[in-house]
Structures are given as C-alpha cells and as structure tokens.
Design goal:
The protein has 177 residues and is of the alpha+beta class. It is built from three helices and nine strands.
Length: 177
C-alpha cells in the first residue's frame, strides 16, 4: 500500500530524474497539488546545477486563432498551455482546430502543434493567414500560384495567384497532433 496521495514506483521517478521520460499532465498536476506548488513551479524549478528538475520542459501556449502571427495572439485568444518535453530551438504554439475541413486526419477540437516558420514544402500542412483570418490546410506552391487544400473532399480548394497571393502568409508548419 501507499501512504502518499499518489503511488509512483521508484523506477518511474528515477527515469524522470535521468530525463529518460516525463510524467503525463495528470501526474504533473497531482504532484504539484501534493507538494502545494503550481505546475509551473514544479516543471520549471531548477536543481543546484541549473537543470530543470523535470527535464527540458517547454510551456507552449494554446491559441484559438492566429490572426497576426504566433507572437501576435491576444489574451482572449489564449486558451491555456501545454507542456512539451524536448530541446527546441524554434517557437511553437498549439492551435485549437475549429471545423472539419481537415477531417478525417485532423478533427474539430483537436490541438495541432505548429512550429513558427514562414515557408513549408509542397504537400505539408500549415497554418496560413489570409488577411485577418487563419486556416489550417495542405499547401502547394509553384512560384506563381498557391493552392490550399482541405483534406475533407466536401470543401473546395482555395487558389491564390497574382495580387491575391500578397494577402497569403505561411505562419507555421503543423508538426504534431
């Protein structure tokens, strides 16, 4: 039996300490509650050598819309944060998907991890801003025409060329679901 509010095997804790794994978000929440600290304090606390106790954890915002780029989201667009483990050299956000134009691969309500970058390869899925609105689509570009393709065949292709192409901006590449 376990006298603590949660039971965790010693081998599991050893793997966390050696940065071989990280606890799931539910366990992080329980640990923070047990130690009477915030999850930020638990995840970002450093040991005596300046190393994060929980590995290389990055706090990534979840945004509802991407209107002015990832650094341009407003407080009312911020839905919360997710924590990801790893050594990252780029800016990331999670985008909350609304709608079914990318179904069945990406569904309404999914969170998509997006790396901020101004270009993607043909066939990659990206957050694309057209004027003040953003969309998540598969991108094809031949130098003069950009085609944004939904994965759901019920939706039409979005084609931009000439002057209309100047309103289209790649905000970032979808890198995870």
């Amino acid at each position: 039996t376990c006298a603590l509010p949660i039971c965790i095997r010693q081998q599991t804790v050893a793997a966390w300490e050696a940065n071989r794994s990280t606890p799931c978000p539910d366990i992080i929440g329980m640990l923070a509650k047990m130690f009477e600290i915030t999850t930020d304090q638990l995840l970002l606390e450093q040991d005596g050598r300046g190393n994060a106790l929980m590995g290389k954890i990055k706090k990534v915002p979840i945004v509802s819309h991407v209107k002015a780029g990832f650094q341009g989201y407003t407080e009312d667009e911020l839905l919360g944060y997710e924590y990801i483990d790893g050594d990252y050299d780029a800016e990331y956000v999670f985008v909350h998907v609304e709608g079914d134009s990318m179904a069945p691969q990406i569904m309404d309500g999914d969170l998509v991890a997006v790396r901020s970058q101004p270009e993607v390869e043909n066939g990659e899925i990206a957050v694309v801003r057209i004027g003040d609105e953003a969309t998540l689509k598969k991108v094809s570009f031949d130098g003069t025409t950009m085609v944004l393709q939904p994965l759901n065949p019920a939706y039409p292709l979005m084609t931009y060329t000439g002057a209309a192409l100047a309103e289209v901006h790649i905000e970032g590449k979808a890198v995870g679901l």
